[in-house]
Write a structure and sequence with these properties.
The protein has about 100 residues and is an alpha+beta fold. It is built from five helices and three strands. It has helices spanning about 5, 10-20, 25-35, 35-50, 70-100, and strands spanning about 25, 55-60, 60-65. A three-stranded antiparallel beta sheet has the order 1-3-2. A hairpin with a 2-residue loop joins strand 2 and strand 3 (about 60-65).
Length: about 100
């Protein structure tokens, strides 16, 4: 699974949103997402395999955090598309302003 497939699933995007504030154990994610622990574990595994999340051991706990390098690849892919649409929306705004 690549990063784009990983972020296509809403629960995985929610996990990434939660991890943006810092590393968290899986149990915190279970409580915040209101989905079962096995489902959270599966999503975390898929996010790790896609390179979007990293894990580190802290005694008995496993702490998860965002892996920024792969998110940078997604941003790099999106950047030209955002610039394209920004230009189109700016042109639309100018056109609408002229018509008023």
């Amino acid at each position: 699974m690549d990063a784009f497939e990983a972020i296509a699933e809403p629960n995985r995007r929610r996990i990434l949103d939660l991890l943006m504030s810092g590393e968290r154990p899986a149990g915190d994610l279970v409580g915040a997402l209101s989905i079962c622990q096995p489902a959270v574990s599966k999503h975390l595994r898929l996010l790790r395999e896609a390179g979007l999340v990293r894990v580190r051991a802290d005694g008995q706990r496993r702490l998860y955090s965002v892996e920024p390098r792969e998110l940078g690849a997604i941003e790099a892919w999106l950047r030209p598309h955002l610039e394209f649409w920004r230009g189109r929306l700016d042109a639309l705004e100018a056109h609408l302003d002229e018509e008023q």
